[in-house]
Amino acid sequence: MTNGVTIQYIYRYKNNKEYIKPLVILPTEIKPKVKEPIIEVFFFSENCAHCRTHLDSNFPCSNRNCSILSLRRFVTYLLSSRRTLDICVYFLTCSLIVKQILKLKRRNIYIRVITNKEAQDVEPMQILILRRAGIQIRSRKSTYLMHHKFAVIDNEILITGSANWTLQAFFGNCENLIITNQCELVQAYSLEFEKLWFRFRMNKKAVL
Ligand SMILES: [Zn+2]
């Protein structure tokens, strides 16, 4: 791959002295073009657990794996939404991300959230905040988990991986995130979202 984003990713691992440069990008600097390939991968681990202590500053530390860098990139993509944001995440408790979602709601982005009921019963506050903001949320009560962790932005960009949208996932767990606009993948996840969105609506007892 020879697109700009991919080059940045490879470059950052081949030359650690320069690795911060391509990652410190302000939200306004990302304007994904439909035909410009996006492929980014982020890994989280216990090596960045202490980075949680400087989360409020929103500035990365000297840790080459600082989670703030990855989170800023992640948030940048979220805020690039222009029309729709479909979120399908098992556990969504990260207030930082919820604040970004609320920003999008204020911009009149059409937002839908699917989550797992049992997970939100444990820590419901952030889901309640989203609901009170008027964001549609669907879930179900079932023996089987809705265990996905993905989001689709404008039906053009996919964010997926192992990570729930929690502080634990970004600051301590071994997790991964992939961000791509590879159209076959985006379409597949969009279709899966629509299936779940419809299925959970039909199961009225299961809707939160
Ligand atoms: Zn850090």
From TrEMBL:
Record keywords: Hydrolase, Lipid degradation, Lipid metabolism
GO cellular component: mitochondrion
CDD domains linked: PLDc_vPLD6_like (cd09171)
Gene: LOC105359517
The name this protein goes by in its record: Mitochondrial cardiolipin hydrolase
PROSITE patterns: PLD (PS50035)
InterPro entries reported in the protein's UniProt record: PLD-like_dom, PLD_domain, PLipase_D/transphosphatidylase
Gene Ontology MF: a single term: RNA endonuclease activity producing 5'-phosphomonoesters, hydrolytic mechanism
Family that this chain belongs to: Belongs to the phospholipase D family. MitoPLD/Zucchini subfamily.
